[in-house]
Amino acid sequence: MPVTESGAWWRSAAIYQIYPRSFADGNGDGTGDIAGIRARLDHLRGLRVDAIWISPWYPSPMADGGYDVADYRNIDPVFGTLAEAEALIEEAHAAGIRVIVDIVPNHCSDRHPWFQQALAAGPGSPERDRFWFRPGRGESGNLPPNDWQSNFGGAGWRRITEPDGTPGEWYLHRFAPEQPDFNWDNTEVRAEFESVLRFWLDRGVDGFRIDVADNLAKDPALPDVATLPADGPRPWDDQDGVHEIYREWRKILDSYGRDAVFVGEVWTADPERFARYLRPDELHTAFNFPLLQSPWEEGALRRVVDATLAAHAPVGATATWVLSNHDTTRHVTRYGRTDTSYALDGRRVHGVPVDLAVGTRRARAAALLTMALPGCVYVYQGDELGLWEVEGIPDHLRQDPAFAQSGGTDLGRDGCRVPLPWGDAADSLAAPWLPQPAAFAAYSVAAQAGDPDSMLEFYRRALRRRRSEPALHSAEFAWLDSGPGVLAFDRGGVRVLVNLSDSDVPLPVHTEVLLVSGPLDGDMLPPDTSVWLR
Question: Would the pTM count as exceeding 0.70?
Answer without folding.
Answer: yes
